[in-house]
UniProtKB/TrEMBL annotation:
<dbReference type="InterPro" id="IPR050108">
    <property type="entry name" value="CDK"/>
</dbReference>
<dbReference type="GO" id="GO:0007165">
    <property type="term" value="P:signal transduction"/>
</dbReference>
<keyword id="KW-0131">Cell cycle</keyword>
<dbReference type="InterPro" id="IPR017441">
    <property type="entry name" value="Protein_kinase_ATP_BS"/>
</dbReference>
<dbReference type="InterPro" id="IPR011009">
    <property type="entry name" value="Kinase-like_dom_sf"/>
</dbReference>
<keyword id="KW-0547">Nucleotide-binding</keyword>
<dbReference type="GO" id="GO:0030332">
    <property type="term" value="F:cyclin binding"/>
</dbReference>
<dbReference type="GO" id="GO:0005524">
    <property type="term" value="F:ATP binding"/>
</dbReference>
<keyword id="KW-0418">Kinase</keyword>
<dbReference type="GO" id="GO:0010389">
    <property type="term" value="P:regulation of G2/M transition of mitotic cell cycle"/>
</dbReference>
<keyword id="KW-0132">Cell division</keyword>
<dbReference type="GO" id="GO:0010468">
    <property type="term" value="P:regulation of gene expression"/>
</dbReference>
<dbReference type="GO" id="GO:0000082">
    <property type="term" value="P:G1/S transition of mitotic cell cycle"/>
</dbReference>
<keyword id="KW-0808">Transferase</keyword>
<keyword id="KW-0498">Mitosis</keyword>
<dbReference type="GO" id="GO:0005737">
    <property type="term" value="C:cytoplasm"/>
</dbReference>
<dbReference type="InterPro" id="IPR000719">
    <property type="entry name" value="Prot_kinase_dom"/>
</dbReference>
């Protein structure tokens, strides 16, 4: 940790304490996240090591870059690029706006897979649920990359509407906000949903709304893409690769 000098504590995020810090070698300002390990005596879980290794390889202009990882004094420190914004608002996978470059970036991308998806921070602050997929909210123990596509779909709609699509303040409120727009799922629309641990037969039965009325400023191709990203059944949700090949992006160049 000698390479990094803490400048100030700027927040207590989902996974630990966040510091604004300085890299003594390069004089670069960085964001330093001290991760709280649940099982300190057992070290860093192997699953987390694998996931972090993948994150270090992920270089994209719209994802906050993980620059370094330091294991010191039974703590794990993640070194991220510093964004000129309030890092206290970091969530599972959420949009952050870098004022220096006018770029929208995903922050904490993939950390949920590495360290689990918490409901509260260690300071008992409620974690934002606005981008959380319905299969997680319904207690599924088996979820994968479709949860990230759901999160990006929520961000997509938020960018167009200039406000969050599903701003729930509790897990049940988040579910109901989703159901009110997309309809309450059943065995016809999502086979197996009634067997998920937190599904209740007493849930109100809302019909789905027309997404074009929910996101009125989005063109028809965008509505089609959004509907596929926000498909309730994760097995039918569009993949990231297929989303990139969607008609909506046919005239758009991508940031490498």
């Amino acid at each position: 940790m000698d390479q990094y000098e803490k400048v100030e504590k700027i927040g207590e995020g989902t996974y630990g304490v966040v510091y604004k810090a300085r890299d003594r070698k390069t004089n670069e300002t960085i964001a330093l996240k001290k991760i709280r390990l649940e099982q300190e005596d057992e070290g860093v879980p192997s699953t987390a090591i694998r996931e972090i290794s993948l994150l270090k390889e992920m270089q994209h202009g719209n994802i906050v870059r993980l620059q370094d990882v330091v294991h010191s004094e039974k703590r794990l420190y993640l070194v991220f690029e510093y964004l000129d914004l309030d890092l206290k608002k970091h969530m599972d996978s959420c949009p952050e706006f870098d004022r220096r470059t006018n770029a929208l970036k995903l922050a904490d991308f993939g950390l949920a897979r590495a360290f689990g998806i918490p409901v509260r921070t260690f300071t008992h602050e409620v974690v934002t649920l606005w981008y959380r997929a319905p299969e997680i909210l319904l207690g599924s123990r088996h979820y994968s990359t479709p949860v990230d596509v759901w999160s990006v779909g929520c961000i997509f709609a938020e960018m167009v509407n200039q406000r969050p699509l599903f701003p729930g303040d509790s897990e049940i409120d988040e579910l109901f906000k989703i159901f009110r727009i997309l309809g309450t799922p059943n065995e016809d629309t999502w086979p197996g949903v009634t067997s998920l641990p937190d599904f209740k037969s007493a849930f109100p039965k809302w019909p789905p709304k027309d997404l074009a009325s929910v996101v009125p400023n989005l063109e028809s191709a965008g509505i089609d893409l959004l509907s596929k990203m926000l498909c309730m059944d994760p097995s039918k949700r569009i993949t990231a690769r297929s989303a990139l090949e969607h008609e909506y992006f046919k005239d758009i160049g991508f940031v490498p």
